[in-house]
Amino acid sequence: MASKQQMTEREMSGQAAEEVTEQAMGPALLAAAASVGLSWYYFFLRGERQRGMFVGLWPPTILAFASYFNQRKMRQQIDSITQPGTTLKNAFDSMMGSK
């Protein structure tokens, strides 16, 4: 059975992961949603079908860039944790967010 401290650490690591995701994806999701709305506006309301389809291709690109930068940030965190001279306890503490 897990101790109270271990359960708290698990909850904190889950919250930290959600916060990182929200910080990285928040503006990208907003931009992607705005792009979809703009695409519909051009396609259906203005009748400019070609422009609407072009703008409709932006959301996957925006989300791909956001994903790339999020992965790059995670890789930097992993590299900083696994630097030579870092003890195993410090690495685990850093990953769990207790430091």
Class derived from helix and strand content: mainly alpha
**Number of DSSP-assigned strands:** 0
The helix-strand sequence is HHHH
Query: What oligomeric state is this?
Result: single chain
Form type: rod-shaped
Count the DSSP helices. Answer: 4
Average pLDDT, all residues: 79
User: What value does the Rg take, in angstroms?
Assistant: 20 Å
Helix content: over 70%
Report the major sheet: none
Report the end-to-end length measured between terminal Cα atoms: 25 Å
Structure description:
- This protein is mostly helical.
- The chain is 84% helix and 0% strand.
- It is rod-shaped, with a radius of gyration of 20 Å.
- The two termini are 25 Å apart.
- Mean pLDDT is 79; it is low at 1-12.
SSE map:
Blueprint: H1 4-45, H2 49-56, H3 58-81, H4 88-96
Observed structural traits:
99 residues, mainly alpha, disordered N terminus
Quick structural overview:
The chain has helices at residues 4-45, 49-56, 58-81, 88-96. The protein is an all-alpha fold and 99 residues long.
